[in-house]
Design a protein that fits this description.
Elements: H1 6-9, H2 11-30, H3 33-61, H4 71-97, H5 104-134
The structure holds protoporphyrin IX containing FE.
Residues 6-7, 10, 13-14, 50, 53-54, 57-58, 60-61, 74, 77-78, 81-82, 84, 124-125, 128-129, 131-132, 137-138 line the site of protoporphyrin IX containing FE.
């Protein structure tokens, strides 16, 4: 059941994790604690959504044969999915440990981790799209 939900669930981590970074950066620019708080909550929701998405993805991948050409997209997709979770998790730990305020150096490090996390998330989406639209994984019939 959860395996069939992967294409539905994927939208939540993409939207929530990207929004969390946008809100955090908005807080930096406008020095508004409201943005920070909203970014933090969105990050936590995004991490929860990512955990379910990874679980559903791992289950969906069971149906792909070990010699399938789709592995060319599945392997980087799975790896980047897990890296994305770890990187956004790291952001949550950084945020919590520096909740009293960042030093300039730590803020730069946090922003760098955010940029790398966003790149990883874009990569996950790219290879997920390849799985479906280039290799036809999960597609039962062509609509012509
Ligand atoms: C950050 C976590 C993840 C995100 C955001 C994500 C995103 C996506 C996206 C956007 C697609 C294309 C869906 C479509 O166009 O309908 C997709 C497909 C797919 N993903 Fe993921 N994915 C994640 C993690 C994983 C993991 C860890 C696996 C395990 C191997 C996985 C396996 C699959 C499979 C097998 C498909 C093909 C469609 C299906 O069978 O459901 N995904 N994913």
């Amino acid at each position: 059941m959860l395996n069939l939900l992967h294409p539905q669930l994927v939208h939540f981590p993409i939207a929530l994790l990207l929004t969390s970074v946008a809100l955090d950066w908005a807080g930096l620019i406008w020095k508004d604690k409201g943005f920070d708080k909203a970014g933090w909550l969105t990050l936590l929701l995004g991490l929860a959504a990512t955990a379910f998405t990874i679980l559903s993805g791992l289950m969906a991948a069971q149906s792909i044969p070990a010699d399938s050409p789709a592995l060319a997209a599945l392997n980087p997709h799975r790896l980047l999915g897990i890296i994305t979770f770890v990187l956004f998790g790291l952001q949550a730990v950084c945020h919590w440990r520096n909740r009293a305020g960042y030093t300039t150096g730590k803020r730069i490090l946090h922003t760098a981790i955010q940029a790398i996390s966003v790149a990883a998330l874009i990569g996950v989406g790219y290879f997920g799209g390849e799985l479906v639209y280039a290799f036809g994984v999960g597609v039962s019939a062509l609509a012509r």
